[in-house]
Amino acid sequence: MRTPLTSIRGFSQTLLSSWDRIDDENKKKFIRIIEEQSNRLINLVENILTVSKANSGSTVMKKVFVNASIKSIIPMFQEQYKSHKIVFTPQKDLPSARLDEDKFQQIMTNLIDNGGKYSEPGSTVLITTESKGDEIIINVKDEGVGIKKEDADKLFKKFSRIENHLTSKTQGNGLGLYITKQLVESMSGTITYKSEEGKGTTFIVTFPVYNEEEVLKCSQKS
Ligand SMILES: Nc1ncnc2c1ncn2[C@@H]1O[C@H](COP(=O)(O)OP(=O)(O)OP(=O)(O)O)[C@@H](O)[C@H]1O
Ligand SMILES: [Mg+2]
Question: What is the pLDDT of residue 55?
Answer without folding.
Answer: 58
